[in-house]
Design brief:
single chain
Amino acid sequence: MQFTSFEFLIFFPVVVLLFYAMPRKLKQPWLLAASYYFYMGWNAKYAVLILASTIITYLCARLLERCETQTRQKLVLAAGIVLNFAILVFFKYFYFLHDTFASIAAVFGAKVPASKLDIILPVGISFYTFQAVGYTIDVYRGTVRAERNFVRYALFVSFFPQLVAGPIERSGNLLKQLQKISDTASAEKVWSFDKATRGLLLMLWGFFMKMVIADRAAVLVNQVYDIYYMFSGVALACAAVLFAVQIYCDFASYSVIAVGAAKMLGIELMTNFEAPFFSRSIGEFWRRWHVSLSSWFRDYLYIPLGGSRCARPRKYLNNMITFMVSGLWHGASWHYVVWGAIQGAYIVIGEIVRPVKTKCTGLFYVRTKSFGYQFCQGVCTFVLFVLSLVFFRADTVADAVYYLQRLFTTFDVWSLFDGSVYYLGLDRKEMAVLVAGILMLLIVDACYAKKKMLFDALVKEQCLAIQYVIVAVLLVMVIVFGVYGEGYDASQFIYFQF
């Protein structure tokens, strides 16, 4: 079931209404049943995998607290991690590993027969696997206690707003909140009008990002990338920039809708995007983009590898390993690994040249706090990210290289003014709507970047009538300018394939 589907428009109000109508002791079982129903909307067989991951990590955490020696704890932890990642690797990386092995064997003159298995990638498997494994590691480290209530833990793994595409929640945050909603001794009210209003606004903003901006940008992006070898540099540049906008609005919209939906149920999820396009370095960008995944890799991979508390060469290697694994997490293909390696290289090169940059800015009396300097930093960061995304969006590494080659060798700046950009899939009207939507997005993100939250600045401080007007305006904009109807595929968010 998708957030943008008609089924969800019926499913979610029913879940919310019954959630607040029933006694506290029934709230967790109800949300668990709703979460599994939501997930089984794609394929009922998927529920077996998420249940298996839940049982493995639940038992593993319980055993960790019973182990008397650290050696036994390490064995239990390793068993839990291996079992969970074995499921993930089989369903997500089987063909990738098979094809890679076949290519290596072919170099030595051996032939590997084609696989006869028909494996379908379960939706969201990377997200809930990482969330469950993170919980197990937290129990091992002693930062949280093993959850004894299986229903509550199963709900933690499968909580439907963030189940399919995040944010990847930490057990210390979500489990505690799930306990409160069913705690009959708790004096805290489950219903909050403020949270419900804010949640509704966030959901509508998420639908705006997805249906008005992301899906409209996808029209141009898909047309150009599908036959990129037939277009000149201007068209390729437009597609590259709009793909950055598309993937941001597509993924961030899911996270925003998830946060809003959870908020309407009284649950606070972590913020997954923090105005990343206003970053002034690649390092800052990755602290603002997909925050839940970036922090997961930092805490459970980068720091255990040694983090930054080691010699510089080892620190640089840790960065490269972390980003390359992150690239592989995004997809079972070498072009994702190369994309991750590029991000790691950006970070490493940035740290190497930082002393030189600092010396030069001091030597030439550059005002690093000025708007002009920071604006140039932001533009450079955005351009670097856009160029790297070519490897993310292309089908192969060779396609990405040729795309960039054509981008820089066939660029004709006059094509921006002769109207040819309106023949890339979006006419003048559709392009105008897209540009207006992007400008609105930048204004909202600028408010966030300045620590002026949209809801607090524009809604919470206003009277009730103004609040409803803002909600109504967003709703009308989604209905009028949203991309949907005949021929529209509402079944796909970009990150569902990861």
